[in-house]
Every structure is written in C-alpha cells, then in structure tokens.
Design a protein that fits this description.
The complex is a heterodimer of chains A (301) and B (380).
Chain A (H helix, E strand, L loop, with lengths): L1 H37 L2 E2 L10 E2 L2 H8 L1 H34 L4 H13 L2 H12 L8 H8 L12 H29 L3 H9 L4 H29 L3 H7 L3 H4 L4 H10 L6 H29 L3
Antiparallel strand pairs in A: 1-2
Helix pairs in contact in A: 1-13, 2-13, 3-7, 3-9, 3-12, 4-7, 7-9, 9-13, 12-13
Chain B lengths: L2 E10 L10 E11 L4 E5 L6 H9 L6 E6 L2 E2 L10 E4 L11 H10 L9 H14 L15 H13 L5 E5 L7 H18 L2 E6 L2 H7 L2 E6 L2 E6 L1 H6 L4 H6 L6 E8 L2 E4 L2 E4 L7 E7 L4 E3 L5 E11 L2 E7 L8 E4 L16 E6 L4 E5 L21
Parallel strand pairs in B: 3-8, 3-9, 6-7, 7-8
Antiparallel strand pairs in B: 1-2, 1-4, 4-5, 9-10, 11-12, 11-14, 12-13, 14-20, 15-19, 16-17, 16-19, 17-18
Helix pairs in contact in B: 2-3, 2-4, 3-4
Classes of the chains: A mainly alpha (301), B alpha+beta (380).
Chain lengths: 301, 380
C-alpha cells in the first residue's frame, strides 16, 4: 500500500516536471547532442541529411582554417582586454558612486542609460564617433588632428585601431550592468565593518583592499565569470561595428565564424560550424573551470 | 584615563516634514568618569545611550560641548587618534579573516614610529587573545565560533592596541541568558586586569547593576541619575529611575498625604516627616513588604509565583497603577501557602526605607536630597 502510494507520488512529481523537461529536451539537450554528432560527421548535408563518414576531419579542418585562427585570436584579445578592464572600471565607478550622496541617483541613472538604449542608436553614436565618411571625419579623429596627430580610420583601417574600437564598444556596453550589480553589492556591506576599521585607524585604501573587496568578492566573481562567457560569445557588437563580412575585415569572432559557416555567403557547412561551436564550448568550459579553481582561494562567501 | 563630558549635546535634524524640529539624542551631558572604572550607560531603547557612546568614540560629531580624555580635548579628533577600543553590538568581526588576522588588523594599521615588527604584532595579538582566553581559536574564522567566543574576539581586537578607553555597545545582547552571566563576569575580570576605563551601554538594568562601578541612567537624552548601582537603587531621584531599576519592578501606587499620613487608597500606611498635604506616587520595592495579618496595606491576593529561590506574592490593589503588584515573600510568609486562595485579603507591613514618594506632576522624588536621613517617624 505504502509502496503504491510513494510510486504514485513520484509519478506526480515527474508529471509536474514534464513541461520543463519537454521544452528543455527539445530545445536544449537535443540540439546540443545533435551539434556534437554533426561535428564528427564529415560533409553533412542538412538538405539531404547525408554524410560521407565519421571522424575528426571537421576539427582538423577548422583548426587549420586561417579564418578560424584569426577569429580565435580576435576573441581572446577581446576577452583578455575587456573583462578585467570593464570590471575594474565598473568597480571604481561604483565605489565612487557609493561614496557620494548628492546626485548619486542622477549618476546612477546616467551610468545605466547604455543598458536601456537601443543598439541601433548606440551604433549611430559610435559611427559619429569613429567612422570616416567621404564628407566628414569622425569626431575622435577631429580630436586627434586637433592635438596634432594623424587621423586614423577606425572602421576600415589598421587592425589595432579596429580592435580598439571593438574593445571600447564592448566595455561601454557591459559597464552599466556591472555598475548596477556592484553598487548594490557595495551598499549591502554592513556599515559596522567600516566603523570598526575607522576606529582602528585603517587607511581608505586598506579598507577598500582588505574589507570592501573581500566582502563583495562573490559579486565580482560572478561578474568575471559572466563577463568571460559573454565576451567569448561576442558577435552582434562586431557586426554592428564592422558589417557582416567579418572575415574580410579580419575582425571575425568564434561565434561569427560559426554563423558564417552556416549561413554566410560562403556558408552551408554545418559540420564545420558544429566543430567550431564545440571548440568554443570547450574553451569556455576550460576558462570557467579555471575561474572556479581560482575563486576557491579568493572569494569569501 | 579619566573621561569628562562637558555640556555634550547631539541633535539630529528632524526628518518629519510636518514636524521638522530637531531630535535631541543627547541633551547637555555633564559627567566625569573616574580613571579605571567600569561605567554602565543604562536606559530604555532610544534614550541616546548608543549616541553617547558614538560621540565618545568619535564616530559621530557632537552638536555642542566638549569631550576630554584626561587633560586632552578629543572633541575634534577622529576616532583613530583618540586611543579607544570599540566593541560593536554585532561584534563586526571581519568574516573573511581568521581570529588571528582580526586581532592583528588594528596593529597592522600603525604607521611611522608606532610601526611594529611582525613578531611584536604577533606577540601582542597572542597576549590579547590570552587575556580573553581564546588563544586556542586563532586560526578559526568568525563564523566557526559561538556567540560568546565571537564576543571575546571582538574584545581582544579592541584591546590589542591597549586603548585609553574601552567602549562596549550592548556587549551582551546577542548572548543567551547563561552565557550572558558568564560573559559579564568575564568583562568585569578583563576590566579589572587591564584597568582600562570602560564604558558600556545596555538596556538591561540587571546587567548594568551587577558589574558597573557606576551607572548612568538616561531617558530621552537626559541624564536621570548617576551613582553607584546600589545607591541609585536605594535612592532613586525620580519615578522613572525607580521604575527602571529592579526585578521584579517597583510597585507604584497613587497615594496622598493628608494630615501628615501617607494614604494608599483607604489605608494610612506610613507617617512621613514634614511633608505638606498633597497627591503623590508612592513606590514600594517588592522586598519592602512584610506579610502580616495586622498589616497596614490591604490587598487582594491573585496568586503565588515560585521561581526557584524567589517566591513572589502577586496581589491587586485599587490604588496601584499596574493591575498586579509583586511582592518578594519573606521566609515564613508563604508557609501556609495552600490556605491562600485567589481573592482572599492579604495585608502587608511596609519597610519605610523601601518606600519612595514622588511628586504627582514632576515625578521627582520628594525629599530626594534628605533621603539618606530618615524621613519617616517610625522606622521598623
């Protein structure tokens, strides 16, 4: 009797879970597994659902494709520059915001504006800032020439200039969210710790390093992890700045490469795309794992 | 270190739009704390005792008045230059640092000529830890400690720099009853050993009375009375102090003086000296009653409360301002307890020095100054 009851109970549990399981299975688990399978099927054709054989050829092709290597290089540069910089600057701004009382809300709103602004509008602003047209030079270039430098083409010009614009844009876009998270984390630190430190004559710098940072370390860690993952998945920002032909511009990212392999002008290779996607997955997994290892020592919950 | 407060005042701007008058948290304090004593600031919540402590620590700036540590005027000094140790109500131990790191923290802030070598710091930290008996817990994190142990760590952290004045904000409020007893003895012992002038804030009169050399009773930002605990208990300046000190609380009756006799209800209970006829509050300590068949005060019995050693008689009297009065029974009073039944009449003699008279309007003690002499004709 009891056994029947309990099995009935667990059945009920599964019934409640069913909608979520169905959706997750159909739209997450199945595609993920499928991608993994495609990546080992050589020359898979999605129209005819045929392939020549299985093996690691897709991976070897992708890893020897100069476009892919360029994309990996671009993505890594983007990640390494933007994640620490954006988190660091956001931390400084939040600490500043937290220490002022008048106009704090005004500044908070201003810093949060990029988060709610339309991407196209933002793109337009960056165009005015950086794009050189036959009729006028960009705002930044006007500044550079004003101070006696040579104007640079940030959109179609040399690689470092383009990379600079991309990093600048990425940092600017991710900043509001980080500031929002960090200001709330900072204001949740118990004032008593600061009072205790003050009574002991702790310098402001030491208070920040020894008390504030450890106290908000879980939030910083969260921002770094999501920052890494977000930056590795960069694509739309690059398109917004440099157009769709990213390989030609030399500014492709890994996600961009995957997209091009599927739907780009030279696309139609789901196998290569899958292999590249799996490689990206492996990279992100590794980085996150390393992050978690480091956090064991540095993050105080 | 002697601590002197001179006309100390702290006002907070009123937040209420309809009534934007300032809130006076500390109103014109004048008192001197002798060197090496343990002082309890005592009062109900919101009476300004924590604000006073914050003013002494320097975490808040006074609106007016001066603070002296010995001969030094510290009013305008920031907290770190005053030479104080402060123990917070919630201890404020840095949760990410070990006990040792927490105790070392104040020492690591020292700069210039005060700078200590690592070995010296460690030595001092261990000495402080030994003083509060936590030397075995040095590598633990605060969350791995019990409340009492955290309290000790907080005290060690406050003591490690050998402050001139030690301040404790509600030091026992986060501890359970048994631990509270233990810890207050501990605070007493540490204070005696270090001889550091210590000021602590509490709303628990028992706590303040048991360990302080001197208590300061406060209400609404105004000092009500300062004195040795027993003196304040035996000789309260006003009705508030009388009611605030003592468990069970003092029993207050509406009474009047007619023809030189103190009447409570219909009963003439005492014959005070030279007091003109007037309405008064008569407050009688629970131990000021003697249960006698021919007693002068007639009450109706509500019950007997037995709490361990103490037995109290709960009774009602129409003139009492509380529905029940509590009387600590003397040995013998309750021998016939089973014959007591609810509603029965019970009569008491009063011990005159346990009876205090207060003005009906001002609630000030009548003949407070002379109270040390006998003001009653008949002293039993």
């Amino acid at each position: 009797m009891r056994k029947k009851f309990s099995s009935c109970g667990s059945l009920k549990g599964w019934l409640y879970l069913l909608p979520a399981i169905l959706f997750l299975g159909a739209f997450m688990v199945y595609p993920l597994v499928d991608v993994l399978i495609y990546s080992f099927e050589e020359g898979y054709n999605s129209a005819s659902q045929t392939y020549f054989g299985t093996g690691t050829y897709n991976y070897s092709y992708v890893l020897h494709d100069p476009y892919f290597l360029q994309a990996v290089k671009n993505t890594f540069i983007l990640v390494i520059i933007t994640v620490p910089l954006s988190t660091g600057i956001a931390l400084l701004i939040s600490a500043g915001l937290n220490s002022i009382t008048p106009l704090r809300e005004l500044f908070q709103t201003i810093y949060f504006l990029p988060y709610v602004t339309n991407t196209l509008a933002v793109g337009l602003v960056f165009m005015i800032l950086f794009k050189k047209t036959p009729y006028s030079d960009s705002l930044v270039n006007l500044l550079i020439t004003f101070f006696g430098g040579n104007s640079v083409d940030f959109i179609d010009g040399p690689y470092p200039a383009k990379m600079f614009v991309l990093c600048f844009y990425t940092i600017w876009v991710v900043m509001p969210f980080k500031i929002l998270i960090l200001t709330s984390a900072l204001s949740s630190v118990n004032q008593e710790y600061y009072n205790a430190a003050k009574v002991d004559g702790t310098s402001n710098f030491r208070i920040f390093m020894r008390i504030t940072l450890p106290m908000i370390s879980p939030m910083i860690f969260y921002l770094i992890i999501t920052g890494f993952i977000g930056a590795f998945k960069a694509y739309s920002d690059v398109v917004a700045l440099f157009g769709t032909d990213l390989n030609a511009a030399g500014m492709n990212t890994i996600v961009g490469y995957v997209y091009d392999m599927l739907y780009g002008d030279s696309g139609g290779y789901p196998s290569y795309a899958s292999a590249a996607a799996i490689l990206l997955f492996a990279i992100v997994l590794t980085i996150t794992f390393i992050n978690l290892l480091i956090s064991r020592k540095k993050v105080h919950y | 270190m002697e601590v002197v407060l001179q006309n100390l005042t702290k006002k907070f701007p009123g937040r209420d739009r309809k009534n934007p008058s300032d809130v006076i948290a500390v109103n014109n304090f004048n008192f001197k704390i002798p060197d090496g004593k343990l002082i309890g600031l005592l009062g109900p919540s919101g009476c300004g005792k924590s604000t006073t402590l914050n003013l002494i620590s320097g975490l808040q700036k006074p609106t007016g008045g001066r603070i002296f540590f010995g001969k030094d005027d510290v009013t305008d000094l920031p907290p770190e230059n005053r030479g104080i140790g402060l123990v917070f109500q919630n201890y404020a131990l840095y949760p990410h640092l070990t006990v040792k790191q927490n105790i070392l923290f104040p020492l690591q802030n020292l700069k210039g000529k005060d700078k200590l070598s690592k070995a010296e710091m460690l030595e001092k930290a261990i000495a402080a830890a030994k003083l509060v008996q936590i030397e075995g817990l040095m590598e633990r994190k605060p969350r791995e400690l019990s409340g009492g142990q955290q309290q000790r760590v907080a005290i060690a952290r406050a003591l490690v720099k050998m402050p001139r004045v030690l301040l404790l904000d509600e030091p026992l409020s986060n501890l359970d009853a048994r631990l509270r007893l233990q810890t207050r003895e501990e605070i007493r012992r540490i204070q005696r050993e270090t001889k550091i002038t210590t000021i602590f804030v509490t709303h628990d009169q028992e706590e303040a009375m048991s360990i302080s050399d001197m208590i300061v009773v406060m209400k609404d930002g105004i000092i009500q009375q300062i004195g040795k605990p027993q003196e304040v208990y035996d000789n309260p300046a006003n009705l508030f102090v009388a009611r605030f000190l003592g468990t069970p609380p003092i029993n207050v009756f509406e009474g009047c003086i007619r023809g030189g006799k103190l009447y409570i209800g219909e009963d003439a209970v005492l014959t005070p000296k030279d007091i003109p006829d007037q309405d008064v509050y008569a407050a009688i300590r629970p131990e000021g009653f003697i249960c006698r068949a021919d007693g002068v005060l007639n009450c109706s019995l509500k019950g007997i409360e037995v709490m361990g050693r103490d037995i109290s008689i709960v009774a009602a009297n129409g003139a009492a301002i509380t529905p029940a009065i509590r009387v600590i029974a003397n040995a013998g009073d309750t021998e016939n307890a089973e014959y007591f039944e609810e509603g029965a009449s019970v009569r008491f003699h009063l011990i005159p020095r346990k009876v205090f008279l207060f003005h009906k309007e001002t609630e000030e003690r009548i003949y407070y100054k002379e109270a040390k002499e006998r003001i009653y004709d008949k002293e039993s």
